[in-house]
Amino acid sequence: MTPDNHPVIPKPRVGVLLMNLGTPDGPDTRSVRRYLGEFLSDRRVVELPAIAWQPILRGIILTTRPRKSAHAYQQVWRADGSPLAAITRAQAAALKDAFGDTVLVDWAMRYGRPAIAERLQAMKDAGCERILLAPLYPQYCAATTATANDKAFAHLAKQRWQPAIRTLPPYHDDPAYIGALKESVETGLAQLDFVPDALVVSFHGMPKRTLELGDPYHCHCQKTARLLGEALGREVTIAFQSRFGPAKWLGPATDETLVALAKAGRRKVAIVAPGFSADCLETLEELAIRGRESFVDAGGTDFAYLPCLNAEPGSIAMLTAILRRELAGWVAFP
Length: 334
Hints:
Blueprint: E1 13-22, H1 29-39, H2 50-76, H3 83-94, E2 103-111, H4 116-125, E3 128-135, H5 142-156, E4 164-167, H6 175-190, E5 198-204, H7 208-212, H8 217-232, E6 237-241, H9 254-263, E7 268-272, H10 281-284, H11 286-297, E8 302-306, H12 313-327
């Protein structure tokens, strides 16, 4: 029997923490500078010695880049905030009742707010003795999946009573994911008033040395693109976007690919970014705005950006399926 003076113990629960990259608090220069300072200080993101990198980061990069990035954010910012944060929040809300009343679903960002440590602690305080960490990156990359998990583990390292932890594996070739992509792309293509000459599948770029060091990201992207093309029954053109700095990056580059397609006479293009679980700056500004400009300037006539899976019903059904699989043994499903 519990003594009268015993601390209140919450009813045991299971937690699912959706984790995504992050976003500034606002589309202003100061907020973007603070966000970029955290993001680009991550040793998983920029794998250079701090003694060499930090003077460059704190000097020219954080002096010049935040203003340009703030302008980009202003073009896509929504009434409910950053697209990435708003959509991830909507995904968590849509999954709230997907696993029964003993499972708490929450969301967090690796950089910015809500912070991973903050939401993990809230889960623990709410009685979550088992937590599934779910980085929403279909393709595994040390600079995305691993660093999100790292941040969670760093908080857990400070706890005396740690919850049991599982992590969501990459799902780049999961039939549920490929099926959701197929449905989403077909829906998007059916709504166009033109028939594309090419379908570009764009993934976020990474320095080429990450592949040489053993990161599976490039292989995962290639397999996703191949499986999506097979599911659609059509050829797809794979490319990698968002190059930064002087290092050699995975290629071909998305911007160069769009220009090359237009100059080769393939002047009607649709582009999709399956590596992003939610639309964000890199899709809505870099692809939908600047990508269109590059393509049209090179002679293209018709361009369409097809949205990410976001919080659409097909996306939520896919996330429910893969998360249920990982919760098996912790949660009894009918």
